[in-house]
Design brief:
By secondary structure, the chain is α/β, with parallel strands linked by helices. Helices cover 21% and strands 19% of the residues. Helix 1 crosses helix 2.
Length: 133
């Protein structure tokens, strides 16, 4: 099943993430794709808020993974932008995260697409640009 949502702001993108969080359960994996600045981290901020996390949510571009603990489920926020392939996942213990009982939300999942579990939820965020005439 495919669903399409159109948002007009970063906040609206967060709301979509927050709504999805209520449908997630232990072990779910969300694989996100989209251009730089399209709203992937905003979506994950909404997920974290919906799960009850109260802290700051930022992209783990240089750390690869941020852990958001304190909500209904732990959220593991990955940014695969700096990885070259799924073979790099062994270095960060990716399999351990997948079996931890939390939720794994993965930005730039296309880089490691062959490592995604079969039950992965795929989300593509596109940025529409207005044409100025």
């Amino acid at each position: 099943m495919t669903e399409t949502y159109i948002t007009e702001s970063e906040f609206e993108t967060e709301i979509i993430g927050e709504r999805l969080s209520s449908k997630l359960s232990s072990g779910d994996v969300i694989a996100m794709t989209g251009d730089l600045g399209a709203g992937k981290t905003a979506f994950i901020r909404g997920l974290a808020r919906g799960l009850g996390y109260k802290g700051r949510v930022t992209s783990p571009t240089f750390t690869i993974v941020n852990e958001y603990i304190g909500g209904r489920l732990t959220l593991y926020h990955f940014d695969m932008y700096r990885l070259s392939s799924s073979s790099d996942l062994y270095d960060i213990g990716f399999d351990d995260y997948l079996t931890s009982g939390g939720i794994c939300a993965i930005e730039w999942a296309n880089i490691v697409s062959d490592a995604m579990p079969q039950s992965t939820i795929y989300i593509n965020i596109n940025r529409n640009s207005d044409t100025v005439r």
